[in-house]
Amino acid sequence: MHLNIKAKRQLLKGALSASLLAGGMVWLLGGNAEPVASEPSVNRPALTVRSTLLRSEKWARTLTANGSILPWQEAVISAQMSGVRIAEVRVNIGDKVKRGEVLLTLDNAMRASNDTSKHTVQGYIIAPDDGVISLANANVGSTVQSGAELFRLIRKGRLEWRAELTAEELMLLKKGMSVVVSVGEDRLIKGQVRAISPSVNMQTRYGYALISLADSEGIIAGAFARGSFDISGGKKRLQSLPQSAVMQRGSKTYVFVIGEDKHVHERVVTVGQRKGDRVQIKQGLKADEAVVESGAAFLTNGDVVKVVKA
User: What is the pLDDT of residue 111?
Assistant: First the structure.
């Protein structure tokens, strides 16, 4: 069968297009005959950290508390007569006095003797004990009234620490127990438990212990103080970590344990007492388990880390 010229041209154009298309397909396939494997994903370290292990140490078991420095005993000094004027005041607040020392003198007073005659006497107010004058209400020229407070004396100049504690804490204490009291600018004073209150305030739920101080020279009554009781009677062995390794979230305390694959995992632990920058770990961690010492605050559970030695 003979085709006309127009039909021949259309067949030729279609064949040529098919050829070009096939050739293009061959070229595309030939250029990528084998698929290139994509690079495998790599877990890159999230943070470079330093690791640490539990450290076995001997610590004394301690109990800390707050409180105030107070006088051991205060004596209230008053006159036993009325209507007599003060002639001279010889002491002031802060003065140290000796037992029997004259604190003030009174104007001459008339007194009746056994033979009904009258004579004048010189009145004195004296210190009942050694100590330090903590309050003075006496002024020259004023008239004294019987029983009115003229002076207050800190007996022996002796101060003590009154520690505020809960009932549970008070039950851990014993008389004679050693205490270290911190007052002022890091001044440390040794002391001993002198007395323990047998009850607590039902509103505050706190009671107190009185601590005698070995040296209270230069301390001001009323000063705030913080103390530490040695309730172990010695030292006991325990396990500890640096403070930087121990995290807190709400009521949960945890550390980041470093796995063999360098992934970190949160581990809840139970902590005990603290000493300097160390924290006792009571439960939750084995001695051979490495944990993140520094940088833990920037990690989340499952992160990959690069570990360096200290």
Answer: 57
Q: In this structure, are 240 and 96 located in the same domain?
A: no
Residue 12 inside a domain? The answer is: no
What is 59-71 written as a DSSP string? E--EEEEEEEEEE
Together in a domain, 85 and 150: yes
**Tokens 């930087």 appear where?**
244
Pair (122, 252) in one structural domain: no
Residues 106 and 220 in one domain: no
Residue with tokens 């470079």: 48
CA distance 157 to 134: 9
Residues 141-168: pLDDT tens digits? 999 999 999 999 999 999 999 999 999 9
Within a domain: 110: yes
DSSP secondary structure, 234-280, as one string: S-EEEEEEEGGG-EEETTEEEEEEEPTTSBEEEEE-EEEEEETTEEE
Among 1-15, 106-120, 182-196, the range with the most confident prediction by mean pLDDT is: 182-196
Total structural domains within the chain: 3
CB 243 within 8 Å of CB 279: yes
Judged on CB neighbours under 10 Å (0-12, 13-18, 19+), 24 is exposed
Higher pLDDT, 17 or 142: 142
- The sheet carrying 236-242 orders its strands as 55-59, 236-242, 278-283, 270-275
Indicate the pLDDT class of residue 33, thresholds 50, 70 and 90.
very low
- Average pLDDT over the chain reads 84
Of 292, 308, 294, 305, the residue nearest 46 (C-alpha): 305
* Strand partners for 278: 242, 275
Question: How would you class 289 by CB atoms within 10 Å of its CB: exposed for 0-12, middle for 13-18, buried for 19 or more?
Answer: middle
204 in the same domain as 92: no
**Closest to 196 measured CA to CA, from 182, 183, 179:** 179
Q: Are residues 84 and 135 in the same domain?
A: yes
